Amino acid sequence: MNRVAFVFTRAPHGSSAGREGLDAALATGALSESIGLFFIGDGVLQLMPGQQPEIILSRHHAATFGVLALYDIEHCYISREALRERGLAEEGARIMDVGILDAAALQQQLATYDSIITF
């Protein structure tokens, strides 16, 4: 079984990395039985609700995260430290359900994947 992890490290605006990562995860989801999404660093901002990308003429992909379950992508994790560093509450609202992991647990979980692709 080929397990693929996608690591999101960038904020949702100012770069297309988040959108490209999500597109790659969805495409890979059709080929692999085990996909994991990890949100670290500024990547945790990808999951914040209430973003208004149209104001800055950006195309954010927040709504697309809702289709992950249709692709059997159910393993999603967010960095506890990254949330704290950005002043975001662990129990705060997000556009999708994610497991909150500390750095050691996140590294341990990432180590279970055969391939890791970072966006």
UniProtKB/TrEMBL annotation:
Keywords: Transferase. One of its GO terms (molecular function) is transferase activity. Pfam families: DsrE (PF02635). It comes from the Bacteria. InterPro entries: DsrEFH-like, Sulphur_relay_DsrE/F-like, Sulphur_relay_TusC/DsrF. Coiled coil: none annotated. Belongs to the DsrF/TusC family. This is Sulfurtransferase TusC.
